[in-house]
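Quick one, probably user error.
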């Protein structure tokens, strides 16, 4: 990014000069005979590093742009000077120095110093001295290259090749020659010569770019080579959980996605992911992670730069969690945030100039609006992506089945063979034990393995008497059995982990089907036709005095659903009494809310709700809660989530303990679960992903939360309960109370989490009561903690939901006794199903 700053300054200087403006500190000297015969001032192209009229003053008259350029060259030289190619070669630093002394002589000393400093961090001794000599020699040879020769590139590459071959072979000859070292020197010289030519072309392209000239494709390619070299080299430097290479790579992919959309973003991400592997070890998943993140970033280009950054962050975070790319989520988010900050503050003219001067970006540029035919084409492609994910998922299922550790042979034949070769191979009694008494010896050794499997190890006392009397090396035999048993355990463990990883990838690929289906819906909702209709409805609501912040139409089988975001009305139910009737009048549809009560239970500024056409049922909701142990903040969190096709989800989470820490855990759980469900992941997969994130959020601390989720289908009157470590819930039908309970651990404790779900039919007037464990444990003397709630619900079945919640909470608080504090956070949430045609 420092390399781009001098270019921007050059463009600004050139623009000001053409307008007749020159800054005082840019040219403090007055030159005589500046006019030409035509009476016009001559202009010295000071951006060309090899111009005779350009002079660099290191102590006085130094321009700000030149200072930043020196720092950029110094930093680039330091990174490239210490970067290895293929683990052994160091061609980058000398290539940069050579190109700098040919194309940018006044500033090339900074590149030489930076490369020397970089070498000092990776090599030492006589090798460091030899490479320092090579650096200086390359710089001197580059100064002798004729600048105006038609064979400039050949002279440059030949000079670098000759210097590296001479210095390298001389060092090898003195320190102990061998064929491999000579071949290594030759390859390093060849790569150095090629990179020097490429870097020189890149510097030439930068000069043309700075002076407003068109950059050709060859120079663009060479600049990309230089940029990728710096990215790969910066990947070896780490500051805590951050790497400069990661920040620069994220910035490049963001720019590519913003300029060229999803295609160029994915291409740039793929190149960024694979090229650094030539310099340092990189996970194979990095290629897919960067490509997918660049694809999502470019796909969100319609939402301007914020959309590009959000899409890139979303894609990178998801694949980091799922595919295990080796980078933690916090580091990825910080690196992306820093790159996004630079990306957001850059002026728009920079991107416009890149689009204009980069001919290779032209084919990737897309129009702002897609035609209807293009929309259908994209939908078809998305469906083909769904098929691809299904095929890959089936392939992983077949591979996972073949690797199932449960189906593998658990015998000890291979281990026994290894023990025979390791302990008994040179024993004089080998023919007695392993030929004449083979079956008896095999049986005794297998019994020793059985003992080791039960006790963890085997001792000499565990040997059979006949074997211990006959064996000449009993202690070596016992040691071999223990070693082979430990290796067998390790193989079993690694096989199990490999099988679990492939099984997880298969499940996640199947989950991508839902994401792509949701993406197709979002794409259709964002089409020009639907957008214009939504904008008309939004303006109509504003003209009626309803301050709508956003309005989105989602196509459905029954017409379309409307999602509205507006300032919270603090319980006045404007969504029910104002928005729904007006939109029903405008659309001609019977649009109703999924709820009959306010669902904003927190201090929020905005309210988001969804209107559905011709709902058969609605939910009346009531909430009551109080914090425990004298805390002002409850550790329980609850929320309502509006899903597609007339489904309403109610979620409660209870964090471990109480107070701020517990509240943070429960809110994090619900927030992440909501986001994953909204983008289209299935319920089970979303919960497993939340469990994985919570386990790795703070691995050194116990941090978990329960999940109690209810999904109500308001068209069919069906209810699905999902419980993970949550206490029982109560389904009330007239005077009958059904207890819904499950025994499972909360999220964030174990990898293999058990997800309990139960489907139930509901009718008008049926009521669901969801509580946290602080309520069920309010009367600890009872054998069954939920008995007192069941008996109370039979008596208050006809009360409104809010009154039911408040009454159960008061009874739970009274269970703590007079003057005693509530032991744990308490939350009671009541939902009653109602016919939508009945007056609320």
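Nope, works fine. Designed sequence:
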């Amino acid at each position: 990014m420092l390399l781009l700053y001098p270019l921007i300054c050059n463009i600004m200087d050139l623009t000001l000069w053409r307008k007749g403006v020159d800054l005082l500190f840019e040219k403090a000297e007055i030159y005589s005979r500046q006019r030409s015969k035509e009476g016009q001032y001559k202009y010295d192209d000071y951006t060309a590093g090899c111009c005779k009229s350009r002079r660099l003053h290191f102590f006085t008259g130094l321009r700000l742009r030149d200072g930043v350029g020196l720092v950029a060259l110094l930093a680039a030289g330091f990174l490239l000077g210490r970067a290895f190619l293929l683990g052994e070669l160091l061609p980058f630093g000398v290539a940069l120095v050579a190109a700098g002394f040919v194309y940018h002589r006044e500033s090339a000393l900074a590149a030489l110093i930076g490369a020397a400093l970089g070498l000092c961090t990776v090599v030492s001794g006589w090798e460091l001295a030899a490479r320092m000599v090579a650096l200086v020699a390359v710089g001197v040879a580059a100064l002798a290259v004729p600048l105006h020769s038609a064979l400039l590139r050949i002279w440059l590459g030949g000079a670098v090749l000759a210097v590296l071959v001479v210095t390298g072979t001389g060092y090898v000859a003195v320190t102990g020659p061998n064929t491999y070292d000579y071949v290594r020197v030759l390859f390093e010289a060849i790569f150095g010569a090629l990179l020097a030519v490429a870097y020189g072309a890149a510097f030439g392209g930068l000069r043309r770019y700075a002076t407003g000239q068109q950059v050709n494709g060859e120079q663009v390619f060479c600049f990309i080579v230089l940029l990728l070299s710096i990215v790969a080299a910066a990947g070896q430097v780490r500051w805590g959980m951050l790497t400069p290479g990661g920040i620069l790579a994220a910035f490049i992919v963001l720019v590519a996605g913003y300029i060229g959309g999803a295609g160029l973003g994915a291409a740039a991400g793929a190149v960024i992911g694979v090229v650094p592997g030539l310099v340092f070890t990189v996970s194979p998943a990095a290629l897919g992670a960067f490509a997918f993140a660049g694809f999502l970033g470019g796909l969100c280009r319609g939402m301007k730069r914020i959309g590009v950054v959000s899409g890139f962050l979303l894609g990178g975070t998801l694949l980091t969690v799922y595919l295990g790319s080796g980078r933690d989520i916090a580091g990825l988010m910080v690196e992306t945030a820093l790159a996004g900050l630079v990306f957001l503050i850059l002026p728009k003219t920079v991107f416009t100039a890149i689009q204009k001067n980069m001919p290779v970006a032209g084919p990737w540029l897309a129009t702002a609006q897609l035609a209807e035919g293009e929309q259908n084409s994209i939908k078809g492609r998305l469906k083909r992506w769904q098929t691809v994910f299904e095929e890959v998922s089936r392939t992983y299922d077949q591979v996972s089945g073949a690797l199932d550790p449960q189906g593998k042979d658990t015998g000890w034949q291979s281990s026994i063979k290894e023990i025979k070769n390791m302990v008994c191979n040179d024993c004089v009694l080998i023919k007695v034990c392993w030929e004449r008494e083979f079956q008896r010896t095999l049986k005794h050794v297998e019994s020793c393995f059985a003992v080791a499997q039960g006790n963890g190890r085997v001792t000499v006392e565990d040997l059979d008497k006949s074997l211990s009397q006959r064996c000449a090396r009993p202690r070596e035999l016992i040691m071999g059995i223990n070693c082979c048993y430990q290796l067998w355990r390790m193989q079993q463990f690694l096989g199990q982990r490999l099988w679990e990883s492939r099984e997880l990838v298969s499940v996640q690929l199947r989950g991508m089907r839902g994401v792509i289906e949701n993406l197709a819906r979002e794409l259709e909702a964002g089409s020009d036709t639907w957008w214009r209709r939504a904008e008309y409805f939004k303006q109509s609501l504003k003209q009626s005095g309803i301050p709508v912040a956003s309005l989105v139409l989602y196509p459905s089988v029954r017409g379309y659903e409307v999602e509205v975001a507006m300032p919270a009305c603090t319980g006045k139910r404007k969504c029910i009494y104002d928005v729904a009737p007006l939109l029903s009048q405008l659309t001609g549809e019977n649009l109703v809310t999924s709820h009959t009560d306010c669902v904003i239970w927190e201090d929020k500024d905005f309210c988001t709700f969804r209107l559905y056409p011709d709902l058969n049922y609605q939910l009346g909701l009531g909430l009551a809660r109080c914090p425990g142990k004298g805390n002002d903040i409850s550790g329980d969190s609850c929320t309502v989530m509006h899903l597609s096709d007339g489904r309403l989800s109610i979620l409660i989470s209870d964090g471990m303990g109480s107070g701020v820490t517990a509240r943070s855990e429960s809110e994090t759980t619900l927030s992440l679960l909501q986001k994953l469900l909204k983008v289209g992941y299935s319920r089970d997969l979303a919960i497993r992903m939340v469990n994985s994130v919570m386990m790795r959020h703070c691995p050194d601390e116990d941090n978990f939360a329960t999940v109690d989720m209810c999904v109500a289908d308001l068209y069919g009157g069906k209810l699905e309960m999902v419980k993970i470590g949550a206490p029982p819930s109560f389904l009330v039908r007239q005077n009958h109370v059904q207890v819904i309970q499950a025994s499972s651990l909360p999220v964030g404790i174990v990898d293999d989490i058990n997800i309990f779900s139960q489907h139930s039919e509901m009718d008008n007037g049926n009521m669901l009561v969801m509580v946290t464990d602080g309520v069920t444990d309010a009367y600890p003397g009872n054998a069954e903690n939920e008995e007192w709630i069941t008996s109370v619900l039979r008596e208050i079945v006809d009360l409104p939901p809010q009154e039911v919640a408040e009454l159960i909470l008061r009874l739970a608080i009274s269970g703590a006794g007079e003057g005693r504090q509530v032991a744990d956070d308490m939350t009671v949430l009541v939902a009653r199903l109602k016919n939508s045609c009945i007056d609320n």
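Residues 526-614 form one domain.
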